[in-house]
From TrEMBL, chain A:
Protein name: Peptide/nickel transport system permease protein
Gene3D superfamilies reported in the protein's UniProt record: MetI-like
GO cellular component, one term: plasma membrane
Transmembrane segments: 40-62, 104-130, 151-176, 224-249, 269-291
Automatic annotation (TrEMBL), chain B:
Pfam families, A to Z: BPD_transp_1 (PF00528), BPD_transp_1_N (PF19300)
Native source species: Aminobacter ciceronei
Residue ranges occupied by any ABC transmembrane type-1 domain in the UniProt entry: 114-345
Protein name, per record: Peptide/nickel transport system permease protein
Keywords of this entry: Cell membrane, Membrane, Transmembrane, Transmembrane helix, Transport
Membrane topology: Multi-pass membrane protein
Amino acid sequence: MSDTTMTRREWLLTDRPQSRLQARLGRAYVTWRRFTANRLAAIGLGIILLLLFVAAFAPLLAPHSPYIGDLKNARLLPASSTYWLGTDDQGRDILSRLIYGSRLTLQVIVLVAIIAAPIGLLVGTAAGYAGGWIDAVLMRITDIFLAFPKLVLALAFVAALGPGIENAIIAIALTSWPPYARIARAETLTVRNSDYIAAVKLMGASPMRIVLRHIMPLCISSLIVRVTLDMAGIILTAAGLGFLGLGAQPPLPEWGAMIASGRRFILDQWWVAAAPGAAILIVSLGFNLLGDGLRDALDTRSGGQ
Amino acid sequence: MSTADTQTPARRADRRASATLKAIASFVVIVATTYLGLLAVTFFIGRVVPIDPVLAIVGDRAPAHVVERTREEMGFNLPYYQQFYLYVKGVLSGDFGTSVLTTNPVMADIRRVFPATMELATVGTIIGAALGIPLGVLAAVKRGSLADQIVRIIGLIGYSVPIFWLGLLALLVFYARLGWTAGPGRIDVVFEYTFTPITGFYLLDAVLNRDWAAFKDIFAHIILPASLLGYFSLAYISRMTRSFMLNELSQEYIVAARAKGLSERRIIWGHALRNAAVPLVTVIALSYAGLLEGSVLTETVFAWPGLGLYITNSLQNADMNAVLGGTIVIGSVFIALNLLSDLLYRLLDPRTRIR
């Protein structure tokens, strides 16, 4: 920032950054510009931020209790000024239940991502860096899991472990790591023979250190894109398990389970089942839009600036 | 293959044969390990169930020696690898155990319900491909236009909507409110005694019986769940068609065809789509597999008496033999379609053939 006539934009986009920080900020700025140029992706980001906001401030935003309803006066009411989205068969405000349910949705996707992504990352980088028979065995296992029907397998897992949101999370995580392993392996293969790895090796770094410190960080960005794209699928699987009575148990306001309980009233009080389904649709659409946008923005191979 | 030109034709044929053998061998290994992996997972699931399978049979008040004897008869005292061996042997000979719920062998139950699922997934795939391919072509040809955006949104919603919810709404609108289609189930009770299933695929059976009244009723029942599944395969197929077509349209042979003065219609449908057809076959096979899986939720909503409903009913009654049997069958078909699409790709695309 020696030249004071430089605008902030020029400083960010300069060819000759003065410091590492400037280079990084410039890079981030370009990515951000490319991302926001995509209107649909920005909408997706907006939906996800809204979800985070609603989940964080659920007790302040919810007008009624999500668990205790007015059984005497407020059963199965249509939308009104008191109950914006109507009430369910227990006289509970549907909007309040949806607001609290966002916490469960967030819990599921965050936990599945935290469990599944590192498993995939570890398997993929280990296979890619080690090569040989370790690679062959690990990738065979990955391909075997990749060839399984995910939902049906998750169903069988939950049936064995017992219904509940924790078991649903474990089951979904156990079936969703293979694509991450594939991606991590592909990224590892592209960098394992590069000069900087050879340099690190010459400096005496152990294979463990090379994989953890020098290969894994490079896999992160493509992994994030893939995880974001998978979030919608995770939400849908969790909702499907909830719908079948295998996910979150009542009275938890899980969206899939709410659809299941509204199913009995679909012909007359359709809003009981319609509202939570719309919430699922909006959130998973948000993740799909965001994932698409991220993929385009982070894909540095298709043109640098 | 640069050295191949200098070799005698006999040696070249020899090498080609050995390469083919190698490919077949690796394919067999892939099939075998994948299938064994599936069985290992279902075996593992069956063993971690908190319900003791021995106590489930003899009851929890049985004396200790009876429990012990039954345990030995069922082979639960053996080491795990022997149990697994017996399990694989049983499954391969079609023995999935007995369903607690129906008291039939699970295999017999599955054989009875599976055609219903196949029929639904087949009609769904036909709908998905018939609409998805033209939409994908349209989006690719008019890239960046409003039509492209609309196709993209249709696809994205297909990826994002919970199938069971859309099914409920479809039932509400098209059955309850508009009365355009029939309600849940496969066929009206009126036909229960007059209609005789032959193949288990009711649409086909009605044609074989020349029972047009039944055909109409069956069609009215299948159209809603099949359209729903069709929408999901449409989302996938149209997206893939678009990207394959964009790839083909940027090739030089398209420029050559234009230079020759071929009509745009001929170039798109006759040349580009024909070359995109090979990967498309793979995509359609995969979407068919996806629909088989998606049928679990759809069948529950539409009370469609197929494998998906069978699995969910068994789940609710902790009938693990039936659940795992259904899982193995869907898993096997899924694996088979995955591998088949791989094989088809190699057969149809001369470029991937072993030279």
